[in-house]
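Subject: Interface between my chains keeps coming out wrong

I've been trying for a while to get a sensible model of this assembly. When I model each chain on its own everything looks fine, but I need the whole thing in one frame so I can look at the contacts. Pasting all components below, labels as-is. Any help appreciated, I'm running out of ideas.
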Amino acid sequence: MLSVDTVLHIAPFTVRLRSPSAALHGHLDTFYAATPRGHAGSFIDFDIQILPAKGARRWWRPQARFLLDGEEPFFPLPAVEAGPLFEWGMNWCVAQRALGLLVMHAAVVAKDGAAIMMPGFPGAGKSTLCASLVMLDGWRLLSDELALLDPADGQVRAHPRPISLKNASIGVVRGFAGARLGPVYLGTRKGDITHAACPDESVARASEPARVRWVLFPRFEAAAAPHIEEISRSEAFVLISEQSFNNERMGEAGFQALCSLLSGARCFEIVYGSTADALALVRRACLP
Amino acid sequence: MPRASNAVLIVLTPGRALRWAPRWACSPDVVLFDASSGDYWLLSADGCTVIDWLQSEPGIDREDLLVRLHNLTPEGDALLGNLGSAGLLVGLVDGQPVRVPCAADVLD
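Reply #2:
Try treating it as a single job with all components included. I did that and got this:
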């Protein structure tokens, strides 16, 4: 009997998810309780199964496999990591198959329809800053990981899912009032990881797009003095393009959309050594 | 023995669908995008001028191009070489594509 067989509307996508994994069941209970459910007749963007590995791996050091439309695009992970496997697999699905949207590796938060986009470079502190803006400064979470730019109207779509946290950022975010974290997975391929729940209000307002008014390139440096510098839109274009998953496929429509986004935004590099410093810099640069 | 450099016609690399980003006042450089491949370049004002010329004319003799560039930059030869290396320009000799020559080729 399946532990999970559900249709989730994780805006702007509809996902069918099937799995016998109790670990995945717990992950959904923790992080997707407020996510709207679809029905059996819904149009499905991603048909995902998370299944046990075959053969001896079903019993000995059991593993979980991620399948999209019956295909297995990557290697299995330990069965206890079924939740993170779903999150990573969803990132892959969106990056590869989000038709009609320019997909960029970036966090997005918004207030009053005005968004901050924070393209992510590994170790830059994007997720920690994103979590602090959402949990401490009242910004709405559109996405921690994937900015979805719609060329039709030049706005970014919300894609509310839990915030992925790694290593030292786990302890930082755990200290935020109202933060709700899941189990910590020790020693994964990405180090120690966990997730922080997306606020219910951000899930409830997932149909509201936002227009990017600020592009921030954050860089965490331990003990660094806080620093902010405005950079040119051309430079920002190059940096963002390095973080785009499908700019080749989106062609001219994606290019024009990104140019339009940048024409309406100011772009900054910020360097900070603490959450308090980062929030102070953002408050200075990004006044809704 | 290389051919004389004035026999080289400089053209935009065929097959590209080049699109300009807006010329944002905050930046001296301009983004040029190829909608066919997803490639992009950050071009100086002089580089933009060369591309503009070649978008309005089907091809320009290399020597003529260098004369025109002489009024803009003393580095016209290097600029053409760089644009060629970046995959934006090719040379044509008797209709056959060749690498955009630089000064070293001409001195051979």
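Reply #3:
Confirming on my end. The first helix of chain A runs from residue 22 to 31.
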